[in-house]
Amino acid sequence: MCGIIAHVGTDRALGPLVTGLEKLEYRGYDSAGVAVKNGNGLDVWKCSGQVSELKDTIDTVESSATLGIGHTRWSTHGPPSDENAHPHTDESDRVAVVHNGIIENYESIKQILLSEGYEFTSDTDTEVIPNLIAYYLDRGNEPLAAFKHTVADLEGSYAIAVVVDGNDSIFAARQGSPLVLGVEQDGYYLASDVPAFLDYTDTVVYLEDGDTVEVRTDGVDIVDENDEHVQREVQQVDWQPDETGKGQYDHFMLKEIHTQPTSLQKTIEGRIDADEHVTDLDVDLDLTDIDTVHLVGCGTSYHAALFGSSILNRCDVSARAIRASEYDVNTGTPPENTLFVAVTQSGETADTLQALRQASDVGASTLAVTNVVQSTAAREADEPLYIRAGPEIGVAATKTFSSQAVMLTMLSQHIARVNETASRVNNVGQLLSDLRALPSAVDRILKSSDAGDLAQEHLDKNAYFFIGRGLGCSVAKEGALKFKEITYEHAEGFASGELKHGPLALVTERTPVFAVCADDCEKTVTNAKEAQTRGAPIVAVSPPSHKIVDTADAHLSVPDMHPVCSNLLANVQLQLLSYYCATELDRAIDKPRNLAKSVTVE
Ligand code: AGP
């Protein structure tokens, strides 16, 4: 969703600001803009549409400004338009603001400002911020004081960056929306996430909720929620700048599918003891005497949660996967001794954070299975469990699903071991050694997959159905989500046994059915046959020796490994299938319409 970049340094600021906007594009947006402070005022460029369109206007500009702010906007208050794009300024163009989040009390602030004669030109909540700063400036406050008074008046969630005409600082604040400071020799960056400035520096300071910051070329002053001046830890991120580029690939999604052998290796590294076949997760949280586990996430992360809950249940640990947006209505108060596991790639998904807070409030132990170090979920949970998949730029989650599922598999074995549950997942020795072999198995799939050819045969159908049972059901649901997300074709994932309870009415010769049979699933074979009898072409996603292959019209092959691994490999085949279908249909694969990488509104 919205992304912020700000820079103060000794060189021209426009270049890093525009690069930052390009790096933020993956979050999803519909308009973009920048503002810089020149010797004689503020210059603002903004438009609805792509960063490339903004860039066309800015490229002609000779600006020597060394300080500025930029923004990619995903519309909430008001449609995408030039007027609603950020930065927003006050009516006299003294103050420019970029904002991520929602100002809940903007209407009451706006009424007061209107009655004082301030004028508004956009539909946004954000526009109250520059006008409120102007209001305080007009009453004799210095810029820093005007900014602080304004922040004190705001309710809601926000990350804000501000430039004020005639002042050499960037002012910023964080409350409930991410904001990270990048530190380099001659300057600083502020951004919604690290990739925005990773080309320039990997030295970062993660700001805390309640922090207000003044950033100048020669230093930073951070004040916390108690109005105390504080030093925050300076850290190095271990993401490399080339991880945020497409490299040799046409799309980030394809790159991320192809880097799964490496990302999975990193997820597993040091967490499985080869000799004793035990997992070592280094979780500083007592996981004994857990009565139930709630695995909570949205979209792909929810499917990883479903996958994890199946494994936990197989280990005799009671577990439920719950959609984060349904957590409050569908769960009630979590029972005593509940372990709440937030599954979230970004660590910033509003629905998931809301559920995490709800569980924390009633005393549940909480873990965050996340990819982003120091993300809100990582910080708010009792303990983070980092999946270490590296930056994921494609809106469609691929490598992070695989890493989340592997992380949850290892967590399930850890919980089963410390609780000495009677039965751990079948054949745990094989599971752990197959997990170690998973990266090279993914590599083999990537080199041998027939998904590209199959995609050619299955374009232009009415709908696409994905079925599976147990672990295969989570893979089927994820396969369908991926397919609809990037092809814009209708796709649904079902528990295979459910097909005959309704969806079968939709089945025709123009609705291919992809049957995930990476497990011992006789019943899925029967369900696939029921669809085939009604004319549907059946594509088996299974080991070559599985009996469904005899029934199926086509086959995507996966190695015969432990079911956990074979199912994850089936998912890789389905990722490739979606990718190749979307390529043939010429879709915006990395930035599908209407979607954002990280959904920070409920
Ligand atoms: C998956 O391809 C989607 N981009 C989406 O469903 C995503 O998984 C969901 O929004 C949750 O995001 P999170 O993992 O960052 O919390």
UniProtKB/TrEMBL annotation:
Q: What is the annotated signal peptide range for this record? A: none
Q: Where in the cell is it found?
A: Cytoplasm
Which keywords does this chain's UniProt record carry?
Aminotransferase, Cytoplasm, Glutamine amidotransferase, Repeat, Transferase
The UniProt record lists the keyword Cell membrane:
no
Enzyme class comes to transferase
Where would I find the Glutamine amidotransferase type-2 domain in this sequence? 2-218
Q: What are the SIS domain coordinates in residue numbering?
A: 283-421, 454-592
Q: Which InterPro entries does the record match to this protein?
A: GATase_2_dom, GFAT, GFAT_N, GlmS/AgaS_SIS, GlmS/FrlB_SIS, Ntn_hydrolases_N, SIS_dom, SIS_dom_sf
Q: EC annotation?
A: 2.6.1.16
- Record's keyword annotation contains Cytoplasm: yes
Q: Which GO terms describe its biological process?
A: fructose 6-phosphate metabolic process; protein N-linked glycosylation; UDP-N-acetylglucosamine metabolic process
Q: What one GO molecular function would you report for this record?
A: glutamine-fructose-6-phosphate transaminase (isomerizing) activity
Q: Which PANTHER family match?
A: GLUCOSAMINE--FRUCTOSE-6-PHOSPHATE AMINOTRANSFERASE, ISOMERIZING, GLUTAMINE--FRUCTOSE-6-PHOSPHATE TRANSAMINASE (ISOMERIZING)
Kindly provide the name given to this protein in its UniProt entry: Glutamine--fructose-6-phosphate aminotransferase [isomerizing]
Q: Which organism is it from?
A: Haloferax larsenii
